[in-house]
């Protein structure tokens, strides 16, 4: 009798287990993974820069006229060079997002010395060479745009370009040869200018960045010095330079206003509980 009872109980348990296995199981919806969202950087900023400027003049020439002979021509400086200088600048701009920003900058290049020499004939008819000395200072006003190439730790490399104008201010030109020393008045003029930049910014704080890089400035040619006339009827000048190529190693600081420079990590939404269907 006991054996029969235990057999019946075992059969009932096996049947219940088989029936439970046949029941449909609930679907479990997995909670979405929490993803970190980086806030977009944007906002106004101010900048200040200083640079070591390697100055290259692309040449210079001047006109010569002789009222007695009717000669009207020109001559080119046989040798020209510029002393290197320093440039200081300020600017204001706007960071549109993590990859694009733009600013307007005003830069002043300190006075640089020009040295030149010409070959020709002095008043005694003998060949001679001159020594020409002047000085130039430059203001550049540029509108610039930059592409930030992603942030790696605290470093953000970038490339950029700018376009604008430069005010080139020449001092008097001193021209010395065997006949003596002659002074030409200097001139000033606005010239078309463009720039190319590359570098990297480094996060010092949430809002303050250090900026180091290279900039190339191309300045068009223009008036350089005025003419002078002699009793012999000879007029020398005016003179014209062929423009400048300026290579600069730059360093500066950029301050981003408000919370736009912080790039906070946005809080991920709380994960929902599993849902059984």
Order of helices and strands: HEEEEEEEEEEEEEEEEEEEEEE
Question: How is the CATH topology named?
Answer: Porin
**What is the top-level CATH class?**
Mainly Beta
First and last CA, distance = 46 Å
Helices, by number, come to 1
What's the overall average pLDDT, rounded? 85
User: How many β-strand runs?
Assistant: 22
CATH architecture: Beta Barrel
The structure class reads mainly beta
Strand neighbour order, sheet with most strands: 3-7-8-11-12-15-16-20
- Radius of gyration computed on alpha carbons: 37 Å
- Fraction of residues in helices? under 10%
Strand content: over 45%
Low-pLDDT ranges = 16-21, 33-37
Give the tally of structural domains.
1
User: Major beta sheet, specifics?
Assistant: 8 strands, antiparallel, barrel
Globally, the shape reads elongated
InterPro entries: Beta-barrel_OMP (IPR027385), OMP/PagP_B-barrel (IPR011250)
Keywords: Signal
Organism: Rhizobium aquaticum
Domain Outer membrane protein beta-barrel: 8-235
